[in-house]
Design a protein that fits this description.
Radius of gyration: 19 Å
Number of helices: 2
Number of strands: 6
CATH class of the largest domain: Alpha Beta
CATH superfamily of the largest domain: K homology (KH) domain
Strand order of the largest sheet: 1-2-3
Distance between the termini: 31 Å
Strand content: 25-35%
Structural class: alpha+beta
Length: about 150
């Protein structure tokens, strides 16, 4: 079980109307980590804070990377560096509701050592990572590894 705490207060929202109330809130994680979170700027949020759509993309990217690293290490590859850009795409789902319909991952990986994957093996590693990533298996969004 994984638990976070979330807290919002109206103290910074003197006028509680849809356009004006403050969307900023704190998310408390294990290890005393605190994240300032808000709505995305398109929904009157703070552009300097994380938003749920970014957090979903980051959760997927992190899970994919951690699963990829595990599979690669068990397959005898050595990875020096892994960097990934993740983009969450908003659109309407099959029910006509706004949702994150697609998440694009663009990993850049550098390998070292004698054993390096061919382009086909790299695709296979990413496919295995996607099939075994807990977050990818928990969401309805289409996931593309580009």
């Amino acid at each position: 079980m994984y638990t976070i705490e979330l807290e919002w207060s109206n103290k910074n929202s003197p006028e509680f109307t849809f356009e004006k109330y403050n969307r900023n809130h704190s998310v408390f994680f294990s290890g005393d980590q605190v994240l300032l979170n808000s709505a995305s700027p398109e929904y009157f949020g703070d552009q300097n804070a994380a938003n749920p759509e970014e957090l979903l993309a980051s959760a997927l990217a992190s899970c994919h990377m951690l699963t990829f690293l595990a599979i690669a290490s068990k397959s005898g590859y050595t990875i020096n560096h892994y960097k990934c850009s993740a983009t969450a795409v908003m659109g309407k789902n099959a029910d006509g509701k706004m949702s994150v319909t697609e998440i694009n991952l663009t990993p850049e990986i550098s390998f070292s050592g004698e054993k390096k994957p061919s382009p086909e093996q790299l695709i296979s590693l990413h496919d295995k990572a996607h099939r075994n990533c807990f977050i990818a298996q928990s969401i309805q969004s289409k996931v593309n590894v580009l």
